[in-house]
C-alpha cells in the first residue's frame, strides 16, 4: 500500500498530491542536488505534536547552506507550513519530509543557475524497522561499504546524492538476510547504519561514535544521550573499534524513522543474551513516554498542532 496523503505543500501552496510534479530533467534527478529532513508528528494524549521540529529545520538550513541551495523559508516558517499540511491532511500521526531541490535550467554539474523547488509532505508511516523490532530487536551485519572519508562528502548534512552510499549499505544487508547494515568509517572504526546512529552499552556505560567518525549529528541521537544522562548513565562519545560490536552487552539504533530500536545480533553473533537489554528499555520508556504524552515533556521537544485552526499556507 502506497504511503501518501491528500495534500502536499509545494513552492508556497498546498496542492493535491497528484499535482506535485517535477520535470524529468530536474537537476536533482540527475545529480542528487537536494537537501531534506525526516521529522515525526506524534499523536499525544492532547493531540498531534511535531517532534523536535525547530532542530530539524535548523539542520535543513545547514544542509542547504553547505549544498548552496537557498531555502525560501526560515525555521519558524517551515514550522508553520508543517502544521498547515498536517491540518490540511487531518493527520494525528505522520512522517514529515521537507525537501529542497534544484529544478532544470542546465545539465552542467554546477546547478546554481537552476530554480529551487521547495516541498513539504506529511505521510503515514509506522515503525521503520517494524513494530516488533522495537521490542525484539533486529539482526544486522557490518557492511562491506564504508562511510565517506573526510573531505569527500558532507557527512553532517542531509544531501540527497549522499544517500547512494546508504542505499548500498541497506540493500547489501537485506540481500544477506539482515534488517540493516552498520558501516565503518575510512579508518575501520564504527560509524553508523544506513540511516541510523548507533549506541553500544558495555558494563553499564554507554558509548557512541563522535561526529568525526563520518556520522550524521542525529536529533534522536541527541534525545537518547539526554535521556540516558538524565537517568544517571555515563555516555561517552569516542572512536570505537569494530570488535566493540561483539563485546557490547546491548546495542541500539536511533533515528527519526528508526526511533530507538534494539540490535539483537551483529554478524550472526548475539548481542548480550540476544534480547533487548534493560538500559535500552529504560531509554525507550522515557522516549516513547514523552512522545505519547504519558511523561512530562521536560526538554520542550513537542510542538502541538491544533487541527481546528485554519490552514494559512
Q: Would you write up a description of this structure?
A:
The chain is an alpha+beta fold. It folds into two domains: 7-123, Aminotransferase class 4, branched-chain amino acid transferase, N-terminal domain (D-amino Acid Aminotransferase, Chain A, domain 1); 133-276, Alpha-Beta Barrel (D-amino Acid Aminotransferase, Chain A, domain 2). It is built from eight helices and 17 strands. The strands form two sheets. Strands 8, 9, 10, 11, 12, 13, 14, 15 and 16 form a nine-stranded mixed beta sheet that branches. Strands 1, 2, 3, 4, 5, 6, 7 and 17 form an eight-stranded antiparallel beta sheet that branches. Strand 9 and strand 10 form a beta hairpin. The longest helix has 15 residues, at 53-67. 44% of the residues are buried. The mean pLDDT is 96.
Summarize the main sheet. 9 strands, mixed
CA gyration radius, whole angstroms: 20 Å
What general form does the structure show? globular
CATH superfamily grouping of the largest domain: D-amino Acid Aminotransferase, subunit A, domain 2
In CATH, the topology of the largest domain is named: D-amino Acid Aminotransferase, Chain A, domain 2
Structural class: alpha+beta
Task: Determine the strand fraction and express it as a percent band.
Answer: 25-35%
Q: How far is the first residue's CA from the last residue's CA?
A: 29 Å
Amino acid at each position: 500500500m502506497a504511503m501518501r496523503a491528500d495534500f502536499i505543500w509545494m513552492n508556497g501552496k498546498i496542492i493535491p498530491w497528484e499535482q506535485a510534479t517535477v520535470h524529468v530533467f530536474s537537476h536533482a534527478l540527475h545529480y542528487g542536488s537536494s537537501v531534506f529532513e525526516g521529522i515525526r508528528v506524534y499523536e499525544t494524549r492532547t493531540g498531534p505534536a511535531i517532534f523536535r521540529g525547530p532542530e530539524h529545520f535548523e539542520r535543513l538550513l545547514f544542509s542547504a547552506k553547505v549544498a548552496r541551495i537557498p531555502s525560501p523559508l526560515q525555521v519558524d516558517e517551515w514550522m508553520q507550513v508543517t502544521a498547515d499540511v498536517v491540518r490540511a491532511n487531518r493527520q494525528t500521526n505522520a512522517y514529515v519530509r521537507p525537501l529542497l531541490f534544484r529544478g532544470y535550467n542546465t545539465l552542467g554539474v554546477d546547478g546554481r543557475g537552476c530554480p529551487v523547488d521547495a516541498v513539504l509532505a506529511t505521510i503515514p508511516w509506522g515503525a521503520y524497522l517494524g513494530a516488533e523490532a522495537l521490542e525484539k530487536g533486529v539482526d544486522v551485519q557490518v557492511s562491506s561499504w564504508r562511510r565517506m572519508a573526510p573531505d569527500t562528502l558532507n557527512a553532517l548534512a542531509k544531501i540527497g546524492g549522499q544517500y547512494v552510499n546508504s542505499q548500498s549499505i541497506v540493500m547489501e544487508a537485506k540481500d544477506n538476510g539482515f534488517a540493516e547494515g552498520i558501516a565503518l568509517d575510512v579508518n575501520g572504526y564504527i560509524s553508523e547504519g544506513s540511516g541510523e546512529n548507533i549506541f553500544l552499552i558495555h558494563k553499564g556505560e554507554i558509548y557512541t561514535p563522535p561526529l568525526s567518525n563520518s556520522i550524521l549529528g542525529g536529533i534522536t541521537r541527541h534525545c537518547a544521550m539526554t535521556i540516558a544522562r538524565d537517568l544517571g548513565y555515563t555516555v561517552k562519545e569516542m572512536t570505537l573499534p569494530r570488535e566493540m560490536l561483539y563485546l557490547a552487552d546491548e546495542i541500539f539504533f536511533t533515528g527519526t524513522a528508526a526511533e530507538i530500536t534494539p540490535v539483537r545480533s551483529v554478524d550472526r553473533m548475539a548481542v548480550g543474551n540476544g534480547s533487548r537489554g534493560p538500559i535500552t528499555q529504560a531509554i525507550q520508556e522515557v522516549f516513547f513516554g514523552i512522545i505519547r504524552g504519558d511523561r512530562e515533556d521536560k526538554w520542550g521537544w513537542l510542538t502541538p498542532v491544533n487541527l481546528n485552526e485554519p490552514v494559512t499556507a
